Backbone:
């Protein structure tokens, strides 16, 4: 090697003042502290001060069928909401301190804050109503409602990590729901429906990737059009064959509920997590597998390479087109499986457009979860929770219109992509056809 | 390993990119492939690397014909390649990048990270590279990224290494390090095929030189050939490598930049306290390795980037409060660094591109409606003046060659009265013939009294055009020196060494390329 | 060690939210240009393929055909004869419902179908133009649905909540529709301009928000003003309705003139005005536009505001000319149909107008086809999506019909292509 001073050495002389300059220039990030403060004040001024004097809120933390049952918890509304609000404001104060000193806060901070905020809201919503807030129903309902979202988000994630934007999740869910219902009805077995559903999703995924990879058609356009196609096809068959002979083609079939021995007897957690159909357990397996495989397996490494920089992947002998095709079809199968939730998962017959925009919420969950299985899971659960909350509150009667809660996932997503909830960075090559 | 090409031909439609190419790289030889942009070098490399399959001809390794169906086959046969644009994934770690495609795995298809990391460390140690296997690619400097690419190739036991324009992004001193790595590899028996369009480099490094022009090998020669010989072989006619120009006669100061600071959204200083002045009738060149703040400087002058601090004054007027459009209208001609992204709109016609930054100004428009006939007439007149080879001005600009597109940009920017010309990389991706024309045009603009700020990463271009040179390093101006400063001094300054110290160091130790310079001067 | 970063450009990319989709957007331009270059023949052939697909669907679900299949090997001719009849009946009903009904009892009823086609085409053309403006400017506005809902909602409320003189009332209601759509599109536009938020995601989300917003409004008594619990609003006043053009028995209304005027306006805007130049420039290459002094954020916001306004106008025309009463399903599938209209029209104003007529005709014909042959109107969605998928992939259409590839046609273009591009 050459003996003269090289670039790195001389750079060291310069490095210090430059870094100082950078520290000086690093702006204080006020977004989070301000958000926390506003929400904390909302909790204090609305959820706390609007509570009628002497009111109490009742939470029910078990159902009659549970292994261990508890009495309802009865808390004084005002005092509880007040202390929850004060805790929130304390967390907001902490966030301010951290921002000024440029300390990064972990994920626990927003999670804890969110939990406190939701609890305060529940205390307010149930104050003096005389009705119980059924926590187990609320939470297990949230999980159930998240099922199609989670499957859909995992589908979107696998596709986009390989570089294929998937707007057709909605169509894949609907196709899965349709085929699950038809197959289950024809063979009078919900499990056959469950087996068939992935093929429907995979077929839509196959069409998407075929047009995207072979013909370089804009993926967003293909996705949008495929949604229309699936709605058209399923509605057409629904109005013809399925209505002409509903007994044969569209009879209700339901997956049985399977309690996990032991685990399902744990208070609260048991009935919420371990008393479901096989579809939910499959979901656990898929999420767990993806969160490992995407980052630590050969398949995941190659998938991410193809989605970030296909040419680089090509130069090390990875077949970009094949990787994209296989992964998108596989992803479609996952979404198709999720679609089974609408029919055999809930024991319903197929109905026109019954996926009702869930595919778009799944897309939103994937973005909010930053293309990460765990993040997408969390976001989907959040969205499921907000819907479940809307349903619960409309039964006990509250001042908040259910439409507002149903809108919530969409609003949160807009905030997320607008950069209010941190940086959103999709795979670099998504949506771009790879042409040698 | 010995690499042979016999009659390799590659066509795209009815365009022949490679025409009957014969080439032999002996074991342990550094073989340079010299040619202009678009001569067919990259196509040839992609054929050797299995990315394209040839229409005709054969590739032989150690005398055995081979056929590659993809890069995987080429790698398996012992061919490694370092691409001009690195094939690295910014969000991957060094270890992940090196193992990609050849991952050691444990049970269930899970990657054995420990094993992969060990391989990276082993190769780094063998060649004395200082590379952290856990570092993210996007956090590494270019030189280190290049070393990762070399590790990648070596980890697959490459015995023929192809380097595509490897010095384009390096300082002369970093280039020196690369050269020493190349010689080390050569000593261990690796054959190296080295692609470049820089005459000086091939003479300094190569054992054998093949020159390629318009898809054909037009000659094989040795480093003993003079630069002029190589140049005329490469271009196909006599070329003058330097442009004649009179010494500058600077007038009063026109542009003055002081304390200019630009900060990236994540708080990094991209331009740090930059001050400079340009007089009327003077060319100030900004030299430096790509990505040291040159782009930000020109963009801040045009107003695309917001300045965090500092002032820019043109003929006594503060540009600060003006937006891009107002600055353009006040007489700034701007030739952007990357023509295809910033300079032209590929799908627009030549006419539309010709009015691109004056579309809402008279005579082309009354502010609401555009005047098609005026636009067309002016475009025809000016493109003719700038010798743009075109069909009609209604054709899409993407039908023109890079050099002609650049001439359209220059025609647009120079066909009005400029009070300042800012030109970045004015000859990047342009053929040699057009380079001569563009350099002459720029000097003419100077003669007309326009102050010119020209950014170039090509030292040849800087030395050719500059009346004064300001060298940028990590967002700062490291020093401003006269236009005839020694290449080694500029090189050291580009690596962050202040001018005085650079002079001392350069006098004590010439780089390989610096020596080639001295030699070239002696010959001339 | 040196901490000199690769290039500052990389840092920037990382800092911009949604920055990576940008490249995908400029790809959109190439995709759309390819569309524009594919010939009329591809369009016609795509329609033919779609009709064949539709025919197969009809056959597969037709009980008579299924019956003949039962004894197919005994008498195959029966199967073919029945199939032919079924298809002929369905498609002749489709044609008679869309263009001219030669079986109608009166001449008036015979020409009614073509007017129905125009009625259906009005919102499709207007919203399609709104989407097309986005496409030409590099923005995928998937939010037609939401913008139509907002447009219809504003127009309806102005239409029944106020008593105003004839003419003025209609004008104000239409303006309300324009404003509603513009605001809804503008949210996406301003967010994209200010924060770089990807408009695809934002507009999709806004579609669903609009849906729930309307559902909520329809439960509010101050809004619906009906005195009943039905989620449907009062009909708009006569003074705010788009007047009929052909008297009783016909639904054709003045909205068709609005659609024609809008088509001409969009052509002028895109091809002749400086604003259109800016919009097309940011669509083709936002970086170059910015360097050329275009205020990219402003132009970006304007594209989606104008696009939203046109979609809103479409919603308003649909409500004030056809529906009169605001209900939850007011937009139907118009928003997504508009996307297919813009795609089939290759984002050109005239093309969009013609595509709107075609899909309006399918819709009108679908009604008669459903009534006379029992073929569900949903088949129109299938035809529409198959047509659009096929025109987006000309090589596929050529492959279906065993046509030669366009290599020969492209030759003159190739020759002029610069060396680098051909090699790339």
Residues:
């Amino acid at each position: 090697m050459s003996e003269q001073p090289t670039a790195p050495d001389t750079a060291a002389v310069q490095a210090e003042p430059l870094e100082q300059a950078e520290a000086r220039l690093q702006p204080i990030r006020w977004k989070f502290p301000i958000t926390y403060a506003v929400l904390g004040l909302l909790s204090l001024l609305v959820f706390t001060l609007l509570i009628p004097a002497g009111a109490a809120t009742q939470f029910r933390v078990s159902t009659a069928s549970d292994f261990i049952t508890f009495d309802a918890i009865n808390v004084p509304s005002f005092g509880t909401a007040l202390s929850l609000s004060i805790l929130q404001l304390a967390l907001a104060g902490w966030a301010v301190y951290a921002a000024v000193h440029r300390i990064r806060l972990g994920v626990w901070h927003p999670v804890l804050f969110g939990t406190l905020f939701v609890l305060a809201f529940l205390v307010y919503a149930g104050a003096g109503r005389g009705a119980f807030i059924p926590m187990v129903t609320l939470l297990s309902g949230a999980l159930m409602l998240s099922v199609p979202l989670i499957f859909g988000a995992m589908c979107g994630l696998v596709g986009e990590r390989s570089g294929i934007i998937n707007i057709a999740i909605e169509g894949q869910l609907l196709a899965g729901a349709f085929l699950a219902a038809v197959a289950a009805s024809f063979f009078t077995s919900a499990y056959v429906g469950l087996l068939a559903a992935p093929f429907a999703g995979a077929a839509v995924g196959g069409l998407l990737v075929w047009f995207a990879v072979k013909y370089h058609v804009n993926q967003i356009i293909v996705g949008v059009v495929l949604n229309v196609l699936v709605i058209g096809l399923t509605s057409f068959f629904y109005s013809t064959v399925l209505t002409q002979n509903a007994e044969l083609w569209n009879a209700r079939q339901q997956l049985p509920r399977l309690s996990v021995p032991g685990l399902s007897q744990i208070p609260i957690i048991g009935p919420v997590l371990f008393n479901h159909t096989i579809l939910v357990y499959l979901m656990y397996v898929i999420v767990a597998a993806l969160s490992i495989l995407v980052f630590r397996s050969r398949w995941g490494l190659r998938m991410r390479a193809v989605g970030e920089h296909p040419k680089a992947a090509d130069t090390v002998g990875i077949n970009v087109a094949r990787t994209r095709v296989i992964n998108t079809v596989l992803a479609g199968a996952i979404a198709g499986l999720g679609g089974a939730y609408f029919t055999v998962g809930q024991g319903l017959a197929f109905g026109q457009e019954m996926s009702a925009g869930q595919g778009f919420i799944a897309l939103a969950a994937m973005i909010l979860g930053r293309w990460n299985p765990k993040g997408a899971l969390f976001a989907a659960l959040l969205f499921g929770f907000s819907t479940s909350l809307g349903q619960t509150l409309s039964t006990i009667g509250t001042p908040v219109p259910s439409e507002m809660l149903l809108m919530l996932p969409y609003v949160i997503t807009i905030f997320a992509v607008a950069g209010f909830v941190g940086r959103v960075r999709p795979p670099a090559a998504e949506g771009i056809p790879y042409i040698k | 390993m010995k690499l042979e090409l016999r009659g390799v031909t590659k066509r795209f439609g009815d365009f022949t990119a490679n025409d009957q190419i014969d080439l032999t790289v002996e074991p342990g030889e550094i073989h340079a492939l010299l040619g202009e942009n678009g001569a067919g070098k990259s196509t040839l490399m992609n054929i050797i690397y299995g990315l394209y399959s040839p229409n005709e001809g054969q590739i032989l390794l150690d005398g055995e014909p081979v056929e590659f169906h993809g890069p995987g086959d080429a790698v398996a046969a012992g061919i490694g390649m370092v691409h001009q644009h690195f094939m690295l994934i910014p969000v991957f770690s060094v270890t992940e990048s090196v193992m990609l495609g050849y991952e050691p795995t444990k049970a269930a298809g899970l990657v054995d990270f420990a094993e992969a990391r060990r391989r990276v460390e082993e190769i780094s140690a063998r060649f004395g590279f200082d590379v952290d296997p856990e570092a993210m690619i996007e956090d590494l400097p270019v030189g280190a990224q290049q070393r990762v690419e070399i590790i990648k190739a070596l980890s697959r036991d490459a015995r023929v290494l192809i380097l595509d324009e490897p010095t384009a992004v390096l300082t002369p001193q970093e280039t020196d390090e690369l050269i020493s790595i190349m010689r080390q590899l050569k000593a261990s028996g690796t054959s190296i095929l080295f692609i470049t369009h820089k005459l000086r480099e091939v003479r300094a490094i190569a054992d054998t030189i093949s020159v390629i022009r318009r898809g054909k090998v037009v000659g094989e020669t040795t480093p003993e050939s003079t630069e002029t010989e190589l140049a005329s072989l490469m271009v196909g006619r006599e070329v003058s490598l330097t442009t004649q120009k009179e010494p500058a006669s600077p007038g009063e100061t026109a542009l003055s930049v002081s304390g200019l600071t630009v900060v990236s959204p994540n708080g990094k200083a991209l331009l740090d306290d930059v001050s400079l002045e340009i007089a009327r009738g003077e060319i100030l060149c900004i030299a430096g390795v790509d990505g040291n703040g040159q782009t930000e400087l020109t963009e801040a002058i045009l107003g695309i980037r917001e300045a965090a601090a500092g002032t820019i004054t043109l003929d006594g007027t503060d540009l600060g409060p003006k937006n891009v459009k107002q600055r353009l209208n006040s007489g700034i001609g701007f030739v952007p660094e990357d023509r295809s992204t910033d300079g032209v709109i590929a799908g627009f016609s030549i006419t539309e591109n010709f009015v691109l930054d004056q579309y809402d100004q008279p005579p082309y428009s009354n502010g609401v409606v555009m005047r098609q006939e005026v636009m067309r007439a002016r475009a025809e007149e000016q493109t003719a003046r700038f010798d743009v080879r075109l069909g009609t001005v209604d054709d899409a600009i993407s039908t023109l060659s890079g050099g002609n597109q650049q001439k359209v940009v220059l025609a647009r920017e120079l066909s009005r009265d400029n009070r300042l010309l800012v030109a970045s990389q004015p000859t990047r991706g342009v053929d040699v013939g057009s380079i001569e024309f563009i350099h002459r045009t720029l000097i003419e603009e100077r003669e007309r009294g326009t102050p010119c700020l020209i950014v170039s990463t090509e030292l040849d271009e800087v030395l050719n055009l500059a009346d004064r040179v300001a060298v940028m390093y990590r967002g700062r101006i490291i020093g401003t020196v006269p236009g005839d400063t020694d290449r080694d001094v500029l090189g050291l300054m580009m690596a962050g060494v202040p001018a005085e110290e650079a002079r001392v160091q350069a006098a004590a130790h010439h780089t390989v390329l610096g020596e080639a310079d001295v030699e070239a001067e002696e010959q001339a | 060690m040196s901490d000199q970063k690769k290039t500052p450009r990389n840092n920037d990319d990382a800092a911009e939210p949604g920055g990576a989709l940008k490249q995908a957007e400029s790809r959109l331009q190439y995709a759309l240009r390819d569309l524009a270059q594919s010939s009329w023949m591809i369009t016609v052939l795509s329609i033919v393929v779609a009709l064949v697909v539709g025919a197969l669907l009809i056959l597969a679900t037709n009980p008579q055909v299924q019956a003949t299949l039962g004894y197919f090997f005994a008498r195959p001719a029966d199967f073919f004869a029945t199939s032919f009849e079924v298809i002929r009946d369905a498609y002749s009903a489709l044609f008679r419902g869309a263009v001219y009904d030669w079986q109608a009892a009166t001449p008036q009823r015979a020409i009614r179908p073509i007017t129905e086609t125009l009625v259906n085409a009005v919102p499709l053309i207007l919203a399609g133009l709104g989407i097309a403006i986005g496409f030409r400017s590099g923005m995928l506005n998937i939010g037609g649905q939401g913008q139509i809902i907002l447009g219809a909602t504003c127009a309806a409320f102005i239409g029944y909540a106020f008593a105003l003189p004839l003419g003025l009332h209609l004008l104000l209601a239409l303006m309300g529709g324009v404003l509603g759509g513009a605001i809804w599109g503008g949210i996406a536009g301003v967010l994209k301009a200010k924060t770089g938020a990807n408009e695809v995601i934002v507009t999709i989300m806004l579609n669903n928000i609009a849906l729930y917003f309307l559902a909520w409004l329809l439960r509010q008594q101050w809004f619906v003003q009906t005195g009943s619990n039905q989620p449907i609003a009062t009909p708009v006043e006569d003074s705010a309705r788009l007047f009929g053009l052909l008297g009783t028995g016909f639904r054709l209304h003045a909205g068709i003139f609005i659609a024609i005027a809008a088509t001409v306006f969009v052509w002028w805007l895109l091809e002749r005005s400086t604003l259109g130049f800016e919009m097309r420039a940011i669509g083709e290459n936002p970086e170059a536009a910015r360097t050329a002094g275009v205020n990219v954020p402003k132009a970006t916001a304007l594209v989606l505001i104008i696009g939203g306004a046109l979609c809103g106008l479409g919603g308003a025309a649909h409500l004030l000319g056809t529906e009169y009463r605001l209900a939850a399903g007011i937009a139907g599938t118009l928003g997504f149909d508009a996307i297919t209209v813009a795609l089939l029209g290759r984002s050109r104003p005239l093309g969009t107008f013609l595509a709107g007529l075609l899909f309006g005709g399918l819709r009108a014909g679908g009604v008669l086809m459903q009534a006379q042959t029992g073929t569900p109107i949903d088949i129109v969605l299938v035809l529409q999506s198959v047509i659009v998928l096929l025109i987006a992939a000309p090589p596929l259409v050529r492959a279906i019909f065993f046509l030669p590839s366009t290599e020969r046609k492209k030759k003159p273009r190739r020759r002029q292509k610069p060396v680098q591009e051909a090699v790339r």
Q: What stands out?
A: Chain A is about 70% helix and 5% strand. The CA atoms of residues 260 and 274 of chain A lie 6 Å apart. The two ends of chain A are 38 Å apart (CA to CA).
